[in-house]
Structures are given as C-alpha cells and as structure tokens.
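User: For a teaching handout, I'd like to show students what a predicted protein-ligand complex looks like in token form. I'll give you the sequence and the SMILES for zinc ion. Please answer with just the structure.
Assistant: Understood, here is the input followed by the structure.
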Amino acid sequence: MTSPARQEHGTTALTAPARGPRQLLLPLAIIASGATLAIAVQLVFDPFRTHIPLCVLNHLTGLECPGCGAIRSVHALLAGDPLLALRNNALVTTAIPLAGIGLVAWAVRRSRGLRTNLLPSNTVLLVLVGIAVLYAVLRNLPMFWFLAPISYVGG
Ligand SMILES: [Zn+2]
C-alpha cells in the first residue's frame, strides 16, 4: 500500500498544472477577502478608542503577545499612518507587505502554470517562530517600551 503523500506525488506528476488568467481568481479572492475584512473593521470601529479583549494572554497576564496591537496596526496602515502602525505592531506591519509580495508572486506563478509550495520549509518556519518569540519577549521588557502597542482608550 502506498502512502497518501506518495499517491499525491504520483498524481501531481501526471497532471499538468493549469495556467492562464483563471488561475488568478484564488489569489485575487484571498486579497479581496483580506482587504474587505480590514476595511469593514476600519469602518465599524476605531481600535484605538475601543477596548477589544481579543488576546487571552494579554487579558489573563497583561503581557503583550506578538499579535497584540495587530488590529490597531492595520487600522493605522489603512488610515495612511505607517509610523503609528509600526508603533503598534512592527511585526504585523512588516509582515503585511511581505505577505502581499508573496501573494502577488504566487498569483503570477499560478497564471504561468508554475507550481508553488505555499508552506514554508521547516527552517523558515523555525526562523519565523523564533522572530515572533523574540518580538514577544522584547516588547514586554521595559527597555523596549516602544515595541508595546499603544491605546487611547481611557486616555
Ligand atoms: Zn496578544
């Protein structure tokens, strides 16, 4: 009996990848969904003036996780204030354009009929997790106060 991975590999080796403008639909749908969600959040509330207890770690311990301030960061980016976005979550602020570049590269490769493995290698994954953990540790240290998100709630 062959493993599912081996069967899948055999199947993918026999079929040619589709190509053409229709291959842009999935990447465009992902980009449109993300943009729609971000704009909807932008229109519904101001995360700088509304306390949204989304983070369990922050709620229970007061510590900032790597994602704390992400909504405020996206909100600031959409408002055209990249410095405020960086101030609230530098990790997310730098990840958004990189993810956008990756999505565009993936869309171009798909339209040309080239396969792209969207899952990063274990090494890349370890480096990304290491960066996120380091960022989480640093933003909770007093000397790196500028990495912690800001809020105008109650201020
Ligand atoms: Zn958090």
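For the handout, you might add this sentence: Confidence is low (pLDDT under 50) at residues 1-12.
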